[in-house]
């Protein structure tokens, strides 16, 4: 398994735990890495995805709800919800990862950890987010995000 693929798998597990427990991000990360030692580059990318996703959770959740017809985010399966969150974070903010890779990785996570419809659900929503909202810069690298107008376009 490639390092970034493994990092995304770990990020999903951490986001799932945060979603269920509502614990502090730094504490969950510290506890997770104690139990699941990983190479520094895997740990670094997974932590970046988790922290960035949580930093932009409100905006990301709004985008997901806007493009998930007739779905309330709290009623989505926890796995699907967190794959969508981290996929949206990567699509919007992680410039070194091509959008096609973000989409493919999210769909593969959905196939692996979701139910039989998860991959279609995830693909549809993330593809729409990508097409309508584009990249906004990586906040963890200090790049300011692009402003969002009232219609939600970047």
Description of the molecule:
- The protein has 154 residues and is an all-alpha fold.
- The chain has a single domain, classed as N-utilizing Substance Protein B Homolog, Chain A (Orthogonal Bundle), CATH 1.10.940.
- 68% of the residues lie in helices and 0% in strands.
- The radius of gyration is 14 Å and the shape is globular.
- The N and C termini lie far apart (34 Å).
Could you give a quick summary of the protein structure above?
The protein has helices at 3-21, 25-35, 40-55, 57-67, 78-93, 99-113, 118-133. The protein is mainly alpha-helical and 154 residues long.
List keywords for this structure.
154 residues; mainly alpha; N-utilizing Substance Protein B Homolog, Chain A; 7 helices; 0% strand
What topology does this entry show?
Elements: H1 3-21, H2 25-35, H3 40-55, H4 57-67, H5 78-93, H6 99-113, H7 118-133
- Overall CATH architecture: Orthogonal Bundle
> What structural category do the secondary elements indicate?
mainly alpha
Helical amount: 55-70%
CATH class: Mainly Alpha
> Number of helical segments?
7
Estimate what percentage of residues fall within beta strands. under 5%
Major beta-sheet overview: none
- Mean pLDDT over all positions: 88
Order of helices and strands: HHHHHHH
Compute the number of strand runs. Answer: 0
Q: N- to C-terminal separation?
A: 34 Å
Low-pLDDT segments: 138-154
Shape: globular
Please tell me the total number of domains: 1
């Amino acid at each position: 398994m490639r390092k970034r693929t493994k990092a995304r798998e770990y990020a999903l597990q951490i986001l799932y735990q945060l979603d269920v427990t509502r614990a502090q991000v730094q504490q969950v990360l510290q506890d997770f890495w104690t139990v699941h030692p990983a190479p520094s580059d895997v740990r670094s990318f997974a932590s970046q995805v988790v922290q960035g996703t949580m930093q932009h959770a409100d905006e990301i959740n709004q985008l997901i709800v806007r493009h998930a017809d007739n779905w309330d985010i709290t009623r989505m399966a926890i796995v699907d919800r967190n794959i969508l969150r981290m996929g949206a974070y990567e699509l919007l903010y992680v410039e070194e990862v091509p959008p096609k890779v973000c989409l493919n990785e999210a769909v593969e996570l959905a196939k692996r950890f979701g139910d039989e419809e998860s991959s279609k659900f995830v693909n549809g929503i993330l593809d729409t987010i990508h097409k309508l909202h584009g990249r906004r810069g990586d906040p963890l690298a200090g790049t300011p995000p692009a402003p969002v107008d009232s219609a939600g376009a970047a």
